Amino acid sequence: MSRTVAILGAGLAGLRCGSILHQAGYDVQIYEKANRIGGRMMTDEINGFLIDHGFHVMQTGYPTSQRAFDFEKLGAKAFEPGAVVVQKKKTKTKFWRLSDPFRRPIQGLLGGLSGFASPFDLLRVARLRQFVRRGNTERVFVGENNTTATFLQQRGFSQSMIDRFFHPLFSGIFLENELRTNERMFRFVFRMMSQGDMILPKGGIAAAPRYLADLIGDERIHLNAEIKLIDEHTLQVSGQNKKFDAVVHAYNPNRQESKRHVWTLHFDAPKSPLKSKHIVLNANVKLENQLIAHIAVPSDIQSSYAPSGRSLVTVTVVGQAAEKRELTTSDAIQEQVMKELRSIFGAQVGDWQNLAIQHIEHALPEVGSEQALTGQPSESVREYECGDHTVHGSVEGALLSAEQVSQRIIESFTT
Fold first, then answer.
1. Which of 19, 30, 197, 236 holds its CA 20 to 30 A away from the CA of 190?
2. What's the CA dihedral at 374, 375, 379, 384 to 10 degrees?
């Protein structure tokens, strides 16, 4: 008789843990209180558009993602490495295309000559890239626990480079407006970005948890589940007690404590406003106290994200930036975002139609400089607990914790 394992939560961590145990021969049952799988990785279809909950990408550089997913089967396609930075000064709007010089040498050289950053800052970027890629991945979690802002200053970057490039990019990634995130997390993310691609699955970001669920089988995943934990081997399921050899807690019990939230606005546009497959960073988000951190056109990467002849434009607004402007409603956020979009792209924005405005609360766990990140799951009160909250707020954190919990369970029954 196979061992029985109950997993509470059908987010990425729970599904990855379940897929490993199922493939190892365990009888896995996953219980999810929501009406669908995926946790924060969800996708809706609205008027033929694929609308992810928040702006999501997958990173091919994550070692755990390489083990968990078949990117080819997901139909994944990549953004161009690098970014476009936009800045409006008085009446003139300037776009700089900054390509990764190590993967796009010609475009990178042209970007370096564009005048966006000084030669010294560009050299510091190259040195930073070399620094974070040195040695194994665990090395980026060794050293100081300063904030990202302090780390960048210590690396010698000018304040202009920090405000115009690093701030819009990483405030949109970390979902905080001060670059207060632990420098170890920054080093990890920068390493992953420098050695992998940002990709989108053909079916939207929900295709990632769906891929794992298919390995397990829908008959083992129970949605809208009413569960009561009796003890670490007993669950009350719909009023009946069920015994399991192990119970895995694949959710964050303190999620409500996180203050990192984000507004995401999705627009139906007649055509893409961009000329390349890059993410657009708003250099004025810090300098001019604006809302938009970055803009993407997912349908430029995956045509499946929009109906034929239309484009999907997705705008990211860090919740803390909105708070600073005392903007707390969807209407107020949209009004200011449209104003900023018109200043960037001009009259064409008048033809855009809003598809969805999402306010995602508690979007990421807090990862401040006071937390000594190790890159490994922290010790939990519970023996079997997984999720990005036990490592750091990323797909890597969720998958790594799931792999380690599943391995501990397998070892406990084979020794």
1. 19
2. -170
Per residue in 216-227, pLDDT (tens digit) is 999 999 999 999
pLDDT of 369: 60
Encoded tokens for 297: 């056109």
Count the residues in the chain: 415
**With 60 as the cut, is the pLDDT of residue 113 above it?**
no
Closest CA to 260 of 357, 160, 180, 147: 180
Contact 62, 76 (CB under 8 A): no
- Partners of 360 in the beta sheet? 262
Q: Answer whether 64's CB lies under 8 Å from 403's CB.
A: yes
Supply φ then ψ for residue 290, to 5 degrees. -90, 180
What is the C-alpha separation between 252 and 388, in angstroms, rounded?
8
79 DSSP assignment: P
Q: How far is residue 272's CA from residue 282's CA, in Å, rounded to a whole number?
A: 17
Specify whether the CB–CB gap between 260 and 308 falls below 8 A: no
- C-alpha 330/C-alpha 345 separation (Å) is 22
CA dihedral 405, 407, 408, 410 (to 10 degrees): 130
- CB half-sphere exposure, 371, CA atoms < 13 A: 22
What is the residue range of 93's domain? 77-200+259-364
pLDDT band, very low/low/confident/very high, at 137 (cuts 50, 70, 90): confident
Residue 266 domain flag: yes
Q: Rounded to whole angstroms, what are the CA distances from 205 to 37, 38, 48, 51, 60?
A: 12, 9, 16, 9, 14
Q: 3-class SS at 388?
A: helix
Task: Find out whether 374 and 143 touch, Cβ atoms under 8 Å.
Answer: no
The DSSP output letter for 208 is: H
Residue 414, classified by CB atoms within 10 Å of its CB into exposed (0-12), middle (13-18) or buried (19+), is exposed
Answer yes or no: do 15 and 119 share one domain: no
Q: Are 28 and 400 in contact (CB under 8 A)?
A: no
Whole-number Å distance between alpha carbons of 376 and 400: 8
Residue type, 245: D
Q: What angle do CA 325, 331, 337 make, to 5 degrees?
A: 60
| 296: in domain | yes
Q: Which of 139, 132, 24, 60 is nearest to 396 (CA)?
A: 60
Looking from the CA of 44 toward its CB, the CA atoms found within 13 Å total 10
- 205-262 pLDDT, tens per residue? 999 999 999 999 999 999 999 999 999 899 999 889 999 999 999 988 776 566 789 9
